[in-house]
Amino acid sequence: MKVVIDTSRSPYAKLYPVPLDAIKIEDDFWKPKLQVLRKNAIPFVYEQLERTGRIENFRRVARGDYNIEWRIADDSDVYKWVEAASYALAYSYDEKIDELLKGVVEAINGAQDEDGYLFTLYAFDRSKRWKNLRDMHELYCAGHLMHAAVAYYRSTGRRSLLDTAIRFADHIVNRFGPGREEGVPGHPEIEMAFVELYRVTRDKKYLEISKAFIDKRGKGLIGGSMTYIDHKPFRELDEIVGHAVRSLYLNGGATDLYLETGDRELFEVLERLWKSMAWRKMYITGGVGSRYVGETFGDDYELPDRRAYAETCAAIANVMWNWRMLYATGDPKYMDVAELALHNGALSGISLDGREYFYVNPLADRGKTRRKPWYECACCPTNIIRLLSYLPGLLYAISDDGIWVNLYVQSAARIPFRDQTVEIREYTRYPWDGLVEFEVYPEKEENFVIYLRIPGWCKSSRVYLDDKQVGNGTPSTYFKLESRWCKGSRIRLEMEMPVELVKAHPHVLCLWERVALRRGPIVYCFEAVDNPGIDVWDIALHGKTSVRAIYDPNLLGGVTVLEVDGYIIEYEDNLYTSIEEEIKVKPRKLKAIPYYAWSNRNPGPMIVWVKHIKQ
Amino acid sequence: MKVVIDTSRSPYAKLYPVPLDAIKIEDDFWKPKLQVLRKNAIPFVYEQLERTGRIENFRRVARGDYNIEWRIADDSDVYKWVEAASYALAYSYDEKIDELLKGVVEAINGAQDEDGYLFTLYAFDRSKRWKNLRDMHELYCAGHLMHAAVAYYRSTGRRSLLDTAIRFADHIVNRFGPGREEGVPGHPEIEMAFVELYRVTRDKKYLEISKAFIDKRGKGLIGGSMTYIDHKPFRELDEIVGHAVRSLYLNGGATDLYLETGDRELFEVLERLWKSMAWRKMYITGGVGSRYVGETFGDDYELPDRRAYAETCAAIANVMWNWRMLYATGDPKYMDVAELALHNGALSGISLDGREYFYVNPLADRGKTRRKPWYECACCPTNIIRLLSYLPGLLYAISDDGIWVNLYVQSAARIPFRDQTVEIREYTRYPWDGLVEFEVYPEKEENFVIYLRIPGWCKSSRVYLDDKQVGNGTPSTYFKLESRWCKGSRIRLEMEMPVELVKAHPHVLCLWERVALRRGPIVYCFEAVDNPGIDVWDIALHGKTSVRAIYDPNLLGGVTVLEVDGYIIEYEDNLYTSIEEEIKVKPRKLKAIPYYAWSNRNPGPMIVWVKHIKQ
Questions:
Q1: Tell me, what's the ipTM?
Q2: Chain A residues in contact with B564 (beta carbon < 8 A)
Q3: In chain B, what percentage of residues exceed pLDDT 90?
Q4: Cis peptide upstream of residue A373 (ω within 30 degrees of 0)
Q5: What residues in chain B have per-residue pLDDT under 50?
Q6: Which of A299, A501, A574 has the CB atom closest to B579's CB atom?
Q7: How far is it, in rounded angstroms, from Cα A122 to Cα A61?
């Protein structure tokens, strides 16, 4: 089955995936982005992987060429590309990509040692293998190999890479499995991967080692540092800390493990960590990890906007973890966070043309931060294409009693449900508009539930079945629409999507008396290029500011902009001055664009959190 | 002459130093701190240097023991202690300190190689010497040796350490002097030191090499990084960037060089860098260097309060540089910055008992940041004791036409001026009060000027000569009081010292609508221990807030506290919420203490910049 997270046989899953190829996206928001993914980003990243020797390294190993070029985690970049390309093929076959894929898979397969080991850097030096689990990313790369292999297998049915991954997995189990050598990865990722490999193979040893890698943390095996989430046992964590990507990948692995084992203690840790993150440590964009030092989470409410680190990968990991939490619970709060991070802090990681990437995602900038075609540590480019390739998988899910709509996207779906296929045609301009209409075509009439997600941002919504209002939505719930569905049943969900002026908790000291614009799941920013003649850092709004949301099909690939009757402050140029020094306020028409789309035009200052003034 | 910066023969100096032993400090603010310096801090730091093997390393070299314990810049910590202890002796002899000094000096002298080289780490391995000027701190340590030697010589008249320093200096000149090997130090400091060594020896080769070390930067000799201020030639700099301590030490060296050579181009660079720092990159405490990453200056207006780095050493370096700029110009703006950094961002670096030290100086904290007795990189403890040992040297200066009062401290001074000694008795409770009275006792009647510094913070002041008002002071000027001075001439300077509510430039985004309390040169903060039952991060003040300054002799060694009729905000505990969500404001009596004195009692939250509300 062509799915991203295969909970279809997970005993503790509340939701099960709908295959990628069951969904045909037909909207103006995601469809062009997925075309850019296939036409630009996947081939472009491939070229970068070739240019930088990352793919060639595998070929070098195969032919006994010792000149391995190496930067940390190089192999994983290739694996992540394979995963992205595989899932992208799953719902839209592209011969060119498939040819590239075959070549890369062949290269990878050819680099495996006879004992199953596969890590190009140490291909020729067995004495160095597994000596430094904290830093050397062998287990991290192995995890990405498994994910790639599972994706390639699910998407194409081809087993060769899966067999390679299984051989490496078994090599790892033999070395680090229960009763063997003690060790945990410095960079988690393999915990999720082993569970996914279990889902394909049903071999329980993969669950066992995933559990061991989670439960052996905090015993100082990799130095005991908080940055590596090794300062205390996972089950004792009550605050989300450490390297943001590592932390969230680890949580993703623990969630995957819970889905298979029902380990409640583990789940309670995950709930604590989720609250710590979502309630006290997350940017308004869904980005996380506020500190440059160690790429870590900060303390509670430590969310600097100008020097936000908010690595693209961390926002992606946030989507991935919340997706799993949603499957474990059916709780829409997880989808709220996934949606937020997806549309803002993750999507900002890639340029509109798919060829430039952010690593760091500031929420205010003087115009110096620009996306780059590549990074020496290339985790973000390869991660964002991977996330985009997953996208169709996020729209729908199923449960025993019904079909769940998680993310509204104009699309046609053919959803396998019970012993039939339910076709759902979805019409909406989401995320630019809150009206969503469905036509349901079951093969046969049947009673089941359609769960409609009412996002947390949506304070007012109404649900209609065949033109009859059946209820109002409550924010951050699934509206349970039970019916005997027949061919042509119609649902209409009307979600009001006003522009919201948002403020932050007063302990986010840097955001005191500052305000951000949000509309639906989209966070806005002001960019210099749209606001000539002023410095956007001088923008001020008050609570009654008039804002108009207007769709502009010609701007930034088509976006809803906000036209704002705001203000510009005027002041003397002193670093410190008396509070009595006057600040003048002058009305000014302003334009805001979606945060994810900034830095695609002329460089200049940008700001999300503008000044709040009282009138 | 027992002086810190000896500009007495510097052709381009506007001001000349007054010897440390000409000043007898008799106040309640500095005198106790200098007693703590002698009785606690200097012996305590000595113990740490012994405990950590830093002094023993020198003895190990002398006896051929290869077991050098090493952390970066270890030797410099010993040298800085020697410098501090030497200057502390200069104005208050202490037999115990002198005995320690003799022992340390003997250890240092014994570790010098026969070719003059002196760096304990490479004492036994000539092949490693001078191979990595960027990282290995040989030149940095050499600079501190010269400073220590000059201080010890000036204070005690003993030449042994000076001879050692000269031998090492000559070794360096022979290696890196004009026409020799190209190289610059990764960590500037030696630029100042060579000029001071020149001032003792009058050997011009030391000026030449100092100039070379300044002018060879920016040519990529140490990698071309901005962090090391090697990205462009010094003379082309127009923005203060890079590692804050390195940057300011380098500027200090360039200023020393200007004082001797009158190189105007160099001085123009220094003025540009000063404006860049003081107008756009300095904390309200005079602390600088806002970034954790690289301990560097941030961009313009990048001054996060909670994650301020503001290393103690950087505030100290700020004092040291501005002190030199003052001597070069007589411009009081430099003394304004020196005074600010001294009383706040530097003084916060040491506990009231002299035995604990801050490395990082946040301006808001949850109570986790505490001073420590020692650091593996011990630059800050050894630097703050050095700065305190300089203190009496900052009070007065002389010029050809008169005597300058830079810093008001109750004291008795016997100032060598022209061919006589002018005794000045100064009475004041500064920095707690703005009234300063002087009695002047020249040996003989003479016409000259007494320059009274009117600090930048002082908006209103009056000057009286023998009870007759002679004028009003203008902020950030020296009031030029010309008279024929006779025994018992009296001056009275009345400086109004109201509590100021200060705000920051609107581009310091994180400080928008936040307010700090400042009174005279002292910046205040709210600490949990003084404000029970509330969270000081919830404090709010408005422009008309009533504040009373009250001296409390029993608190924190005697401080003027601020009693504030302020407010506490009350709110729902949401990370993000609508701007329309109400924040309630409740009146509350509050107490603020000087920032430098925080974290000397029970741990808890602290904040400088509280919320500004409008009433």
A1: 0.96
A2: none
A3: 97
A4: no
A5: none
A6: A501
A7: 10
Residue B10, domain member (yes or no): no
Report which of A339, A366, A362 is spatially closest to residue A349, judged by C-alpha positions.
Answer: A362
Nearest to B510 among A278, A300, A510 (CB): A510
E strands, B332-442, where?
Answer: 364-365, 396-399, 402-405, 411-417, 420-428, 435-442
Shared domain check, A574 and A467? no
B500: contact with A, CB 8 A cutoff = yes
- Exposed e or buried b per residue across A335-370, where buried means at least 16 C-beta atoms within 10 angstroms of its C-beta: bbbbbbbbbbbbbbbbbbebbbbbbbbbbbbbeebe
Q: Is residue B170 classed as helix, strand or coil in its secondary structure? A: helix
- List C-alpha distances in Å: B158 to A474, B98, B155: 84, 12, 8
Which amino acid appears at position B219 of this protein? K
Residue pair B511/B463 in contact (Cβ under 8 Å)? The answer is no
From chain B, pick out residues whose CB is under 8 angstroms from the CB of A297.
none
Q: What is the pLDDT of residues B445-461, one digit of tens each?
A: 999 999 999 999 999 99
How many C-beta atoms lie closer than 10 Å to residue A262's C-beta?
A: 14
Distance from the Cα of A5 to chain B's closest Cα (Å) equals 30
Name chain B contacts of A537, Cβ cutoff 8 Å: 506-507, 509
- Report yes or no: B154 and B2 within 8 Å, Cβ to Cβ: yes
- Which chain B residue shows the shortest CA-CA distance from A278? B575
In contact, A245 and A313? CB cutoff 8 Å: yes
SS3 B259: helix
Total tally of structural domains belonging to chain A:
3
According to DSSP, the β-strands at B522-527 and B606-607 are: antiparallel
Helices (H) and strands (E) in chain B, counts: 15, 23
Q: Rounded to the nearest 5°, which phi and psi values hold at A47? A: -60, -40
B179 & B30 share domain: yes
| Tens digit of each residue's pLDDT (9 = 90 or more) over B549-589 | 999 999 999 999 999 999 999 999 999 999 999 999 999 99
Q: Which segments of chain A have a pLDDT < 70?
A: 615
Q: Closest Cα partner for A229 from A285, A178, A191, A283?
A: A191
SS3 of residue B326 by DSSP: helix
SS3 sequence of B226-243: CCCCCCCCHHHCCCCCCE
H/E run at residue A327: helix A312-329
Distance (Å, whole) CA A175 – CA A142: 13
| Inter-chain residue contact A576 with B284, CB threshold 8 Å | yes
The predicted structure's pLDDT at residue B446: 97
Residues of B in contact with A504 (CB under 8 A): 575-576
A93 at interface of B, judged by CB pairs closer than 8 A: no
Dist. CA A250–CA A253, nearest whole Å: 5
Q: Is A534 on the interface with B (CB under 8 A)?
A: no
A292 shares contact with chain B (CB less than 8 Å):
yes
B295 falls within a domain: yes
- Neighboring chain A residues of B607 at a CB cutoff of 8 Å: 509
Among A495, A510, A529, the domain-final residue is: A495
| Cα(A62)–Cα(A512) distance, integer angstroms | 58
Chain A positions in Cβ-Cβ contact with residue B362 (cut-off 8 Å): none
Distance CA A273, CA B94 (A): 57
Domain that residue A554 falls in: 499-612
- Based on the domain organization, do B303 and B366 belong to the same domain? yes
The residue behind tokens 């003034």 is: A613
Helical segments of A434-525, H only: none
Residue B431 neighbours by CB distance under 10 Å: 24
Q: Which of B469, B495, B521 is at the close of a domain?
A: B495
CATH code at B45?
Answer: 1.50.10.10
Q: Which two tokens stand for residue B399?
A: 């010029």
Looking at the fold, whether B137 and B231 belong to one and the same domain comes out as: yes
